[in-house]
Design goal:
heterodimer; A: 490 residues; alpha/beta; 2 domains; globular; B: 592 residues; mainly alpha; 4 domains; two-stranded antiparallel ribbon; 25 helices; 11 strands
């Protein structure tokens, strides 16, 4: 198990070298921030994909202790599935257990839930890593500090909508920029069309909003063009020329710039982006059809919405599509909902092969497997890194067949550039704090106080992405309180 | 918040239906099936007669008011209001009887069963659209729709097959729309659809093996249905202490309140363990629409502390002690000073404008607190008539010249309803067969009662990044479901709807079709046609540039003086184009 390491001077020099290698041929479009990027070479490409599990994923039933004693402690709190509890019996984890890691006080053996066998394989191949007990923090925090409220803490803990926002943007609902968008701000100048810097396949997400970068929305099948801009509507005769189409364009794009209300202008701006980008996106996706080799979804993906979203992402990052979009740094957002498992948790999360049912954990695992394989098929696996996120983790305690809102959680980073097959950070105890058995990360009911901060994930990914060390605080505002590089990226 | 009681609903449908994060582009504007006889119909009705009190709005003022207080103006409702006043209109609306969706859904279920078919969410949507487009109790419906976006349950998730349950829940919101907030809060808390959705149905007390009560409802009833996260001033601004907001509750309050919401499950003639756990032998056929009942054997008896209130530990729970616990808890929430500004501000946002001034919120909160405003209300805290009157009759509701930060984006569902009412749609089947309108690529991107989570389609505090609104520090909730795909999808959808109508196809024709006869009669005169559409759709607020664009395009469609068929086609094209362009215009999309 790896502890976070400080960014080394060697890495700094490596980035400096990459910079100098640009020589005088550096593209003029690179601005100062871009010049700070380590990997700003002419033909490089990098993408970061956020896979958000809405509702608050139960990490305690996703990555579990496999050593006998910690596992028994976990079962002591959660009970066993099929026997009135929700915990996984140790025997059921054998096939998805990791190898033995460097021992910490909390053990050396861990396992994924059985539904995530595909991710378990990626882990074993070294292309996936686990981030242990990660969550929003302002500064390192322990149980005493939490209970005494003696250090600054993230706002509105345990609230769904706010913690979704805090994970994506470090502040509660209403925050205006997220760390994906801020990375885009710093690196968008490397893209031919900045509109394709931050792309969501799953609705508006503050993660993708920057100071200058807008989120662009695609559907699973690409862009939606406005028909009546290209074809006269209502069978209006050709003798009218383009009058009806011109009228529509002038009105919806406010061609006369006569809208004065903020909301009118804001809506017009969305329409303009839609109109301006639709043709290019359609051409780009047509260059990499959904049924092409390596891109086609595996059978059984019909109900897997996040896999379908990732397919749209895979098509858009393909070299064929980038010939149209001209993108070199892109941030994506995909999502899957239903993780607020207060009840019937086992049913919700687990696959049930006998019933032909895909649980949420199984869907996530297979979607990531599909996406990783798609990048391999395109020879891009070292250029694309996916990470998972969620509102929060959940309580260690059970309410009988479900769990409640927590804080820190385990997550994955996946990609060829990930130093995989390892767990980064500190695995938590799987027992509750009591006067006799302390658990310094238990804020109550096993709601974990994180030991790794979202800032550290953001800073590590941003460094790989090419954000300069001096700009890291733009992407990770609290990084000064933590080690800036978790070391999981090659 | 989404998973509960899988035993009662279809597992497969449930587990593939959860898209809490959006991207749920499924379904279309109408599900085409074979023609079916109508059994539950809504037919266009006459406008109610309203008392004349001498203060008459103009046509444009009436249109503007009706965009806020109803599912949209139509010629008859505008004319009726110009002979009356806003207050008289409210009085009349408060007295309009409610039509129940459950009745309609029951009829559709029975009819489907007779054909050997199962239920369908469309049964509710059809009833919803039929009522919205035709029924005279417009204000109750509009407020119920607003309440359905505050006290959220959704077909999306574990209620996917609770057709009766959702209809009954919506009827409950409508029943309480003109009642009192305290009763509303209790009815919401005990409705089995909410019990399923936020998982306090069959929630059990803590036990010695470490099980703790489910905290889901306890948390959300505070965060979303009553007091919110931070202490508020009466004007809705956040109270500060030493420069910092003051949290209304802690996790300990949630855990304490969660104990109150233990021991509730399905209604029925007894309180047996079997009925609590819904074993096959103990299921009341109306359990999905009857308020949950208490099962004392599952109710926590330990001390319950929340929000400064403590219910002492009890020796044993009884039905009476459960009732008492619930009353203490709900009274504590009801009497919290946050409720007036917290709920009042959201009602303003749903009906009138996204960013009411603190003074406006203060006046609405005062109406909540005192139970009276503008002569409405019975003087009891939480009187909804007083709150509604304060929202709609406030001077700020319809400023003479809106400021740059004013207005709200009309949500997509309202746009289709506006169209349906303005152009006197009728349903060929009588059943208003409009189905799921979720798709943002080819439909509205929004369906009533299909929010992706308890946090509604959009948040009251949503601040759209990189916008003029955000720069001004102003929220725009409906922008949360607005993006490059949805704006194109809406225009394409309306192009089709304006020409062909909406809903399932019956014999090749859409079920819900407009009657443009009044517009076609004006079509030879483009100015007159545009004036009429401007009044009905844009409340007279069409910009000169938009008007000029429409006029140019409309006049380009020549009306033959020699060929009657061609002339009739041309008139229809002029009408379609005028309505379509008006409904795509920014000044229509932003209600102000």
């Amino acid at each position: 198990m790896r502890q976070p390491t400080r960014q080394t001077r060697r890495e700094f020099l490596k980035r400096l070298g990459a910079l100098s290698s640009l020589g005088t041929a550096a593209p003029f479009a690179l601005n100062l921030a871009g010049i700070g990027a380590a990997s700003a070479q002419a033909n490089d490409y990098k993408a970061i994909v956020c896979l958000f599990m809405f509702g608050g994923n139960d990490h305690f039933n996703m990555v579990m202790p496999y050593d006998t004693t910690p596992h028994a402690e976990y079962i002591a709190v959660r009970g066993t599935q099929g026997a009135g509890g929700i915990g996984y019996a140790r025997a059921s984890l054998a096939a998805t257990s990791f190898g033995t890691l460097t021992a910490q006080s909390y053990g050396s053996q861990f396992a994924l839930c059985p539904s995530m066998s595909a991710l378990s394989t990626l882990y074993a191949q070294g292309n996936a890593a686990v981030l242990a007990n990660i969550g929003p923090l302002i500064t390192p925090t322990n149980r005493t500090q939490y209970r005494n409220n003696s250090v600054p803490m993230p706002p509105k803990l345990f609230s769904h909508n706010d913690q979704q926002s805090v994970w994506q943007a470090y502040a509660s609902e209403g925050v205006r920029t997220g760390w994906g968008g801020r990375m885009g701000d710093l690196l968008a100048s490397q893209n031919t069309n900045t509109i394709f810097t931050a792309i969501s396949a799953a609705g508006n997400a503050v993660f993708l909003a920057g100071d200058s970068i807008f989120q662009y929305q695609i559907s699973n099948t690409g862009a939606t063009a406005i028909n009546a801009l290209a074809t006269r509507p209502f069978g209006i005769p050709s003798a009218t020329g383009s009058a009806s189409m011109d009228a529509l364009r002038n009105i919806i794009t406010d061609a006369s710039s006569t809208s004065t209300l903020n909301l009118e202008r804001d809506h017009v701006d969305v329409v303009k982006r839609s109109v301006n980008a639709a043709g290019l996106v359609t051409s780009a996706l047509a260059a990499k059809p959904a049924n092409s080799t390596g891109i086609a979804l595996p059978t059984g993906s019909t109900g897997n919405r996040v896999a379908q979203q990732l397919q749209a992402v895979a098509r858009l990052i393909s070299p064929e599509a980038r010939a149209f979009t001209g993108a070199r740094r892109q941030v994506f957002f995909v999502s899957i909902g239903g993780f607020d498992t207060h009840d019937n948790e086992t049913l919700a999360l687990q696959d049930d092969a006998a019933a032909g049912r895909q649980g949420l954990h199984g869907q996530v695992s297979r979607a990531i497997e599909y996406f990783y394989n798609a990048t391999v098929a395109m020879g891009m696996q070292n250029n694309v890194t996916l990470f998972t996120a969620s509102d929060f983790g959940r309580t260690l305690t059970s309410n009988g067949d479900g769990t409640d809102h927590g804080w820190g959680a385990h997550h994955f980073v996946v990609g060829g550039a990930v130093r995989g097959g390892d767990i980064y950070g500190t695995m938590p105890l799987t027992r509750l704090h009591t006067p006799t058995t302390a658990n310094d990360q238990d804020s109550g009911s096993g709601r974990l106080i994180p030991t790794t901060s979202v800032d550290q994930l953001a800073a590590t990914l941003a460094t790989w992405f090419g954000v300069s060390g001096g700009d890291l605080t733009d992407v990770a505002p609290n990084i000064g309180n933590f080690n800036a590089n978790l070391g999981f990226m090659i | 918040m989404w998973f509960r009681n899988l035993a009662a609903v279809g597992l497969l449908a449930l587990l593939t239906a959860c898209g809490g994060g959006g991207g749920s582009d499924s379904g279309s504007g109408g599900t085409a099936t074979t023609a079916i006889p109508a059994s539950c119909t809504y037919a266009a009705s006459a406008e109610p007669n309203i008392a004349d009190n001498g203060s008459h709005p103009t046509q444009q003022e009436a249109s503007r008011f009706l965009a806020q207080a109803s599912f949209g103006p139509r010629e008859a409702s505008i004319n009726a209001l110009t002979q009356s006043s806003y207050a008289s209109w409210l009085n009349n609306q408060f007295a309009q009887p409610q039509a129940n969706h459950l009745t309609c859904v029951n009829q559709e279920l029975a009819r489907a069963a007779a054909l050997g078919q199962g239920g369908n969410q469309d049964f509710f949507f059809q009833s919803w659209w039929g009522q919205a487009m035709t029924r005279p109790d417009q204000l109750r419906q509009r407020v119920a729709f607003a309440l359905s976006q505050i006290f959220v349950v959704s077909f999306e998730g574990n209620l996917s097959e609770s057709y009766r349950g959702i209809a009954s829940y919506y009827d409950m919101l409508g029943r309480n729309a003109f009642g009192n907030y305290r009763q509303l809060l209790e009815d919401v808390s005990l409705h089995p659809s909410m019990g399923i959705y936020l998982s306090h149905l069959r929630n059990q007390k803590e036990n010695s093996s470490g099980r703790v009560p489910d905290e889901n409802y306890a948390r959300e009833v505070m965060q979303l249905f009553s007091i919110g996260l931070y202490e508020l001033n009466n004007d809705g601004t956040i109270r500060l202490s030493g420069g910092n907001p003051i949290e209304t509750y802690t996790n300990d309050d949630v855990s304490g309140l969660a104990k109150v919401f233990t021991g509730y499950s399905w209604a029925g003639p007894d309180r047996s363990n079997a009925r609590f756990s819904e074993s096959n032998s103990a299921r009341d056929p109306n359990r999905d629409v009857l308020p949950m009942q208490g099962y004392p054997q599952y109710h926590s008896i330990s001390q319950k502390s929340f929000l400064g209130t403590t219910i002492a530990a009890q020796g044993a729970a009884t039905v009476a002690s459960m009732d008492s616990d619930l009353d203490i808890a709900l009274d504590r929430l009801y009497n919290h000073p946050n409720v007036g500004p917290f709920i009042g501000r959201q009602l303003i946002q749903r009906l009138v404008t996204s960013n009411p001034s603190p003074a406006y919120v203060n006046r609405v909160a005062n109406a909540f607190n005192s139970g009276s405003a503008h002569g409405f209300g019975n003087g009891t805290r939480g009187d909804m008539k007083a709150v509604i009157a304060a929202v709609l009759l406030d001077a700020e509701a319809r400023p003479a010249s809106p400021g740059t930060g004013d207005g709200k984006l009309r949500e997509p569902v309202l746009r289709l309803a506006n169209w349906g009412r303005a152009f006197n749609t009728s349903s060929a089947s009588g059943s208003w067969r409009i189905g799921n309108t979720d798709s943002s690529t080819g439909s509205l991107g929004q369906t009533p009662m299909r929010s992706s989570s308890v946090f509604n389609f959009y948040r009251p505090g949503y601040l759209p990044p990189n916008t003029h609104m955000a720069t001004a520090g102003l929220v725009a909730p409906e922008m949360q479901i607005t993006h490059e795909t949805s704006v194109a999808g809406y225009v394409n959808f309306m192009q089709s709807v304006v020409q062909n109508g909406v809903g399932a196809s019956v014999s090749g024709l859409r079920d819900v079709r407009p009657d443009y006869s009044a517009e076609i009669a004006l079509a030879n005169n483009s100015d007159a046609l545009i004036d009429r559409v401007n009044l009905l759709v844009v409340r007279g607020g069409m910009k000169a540039s938009t008007r000029a664009s429409i006029k140019t395009a409309v006049d380009a469609i020549t009306i033959s003086s020699t060929n009657a068929t061609n002339a009739a086609n041309a008139r229809r094209q002029r009408v379609y184009l005028t309505v379509f362009l008006a409904m795509a215009s920014p000044e229509y999309l932003i209600q102000k």
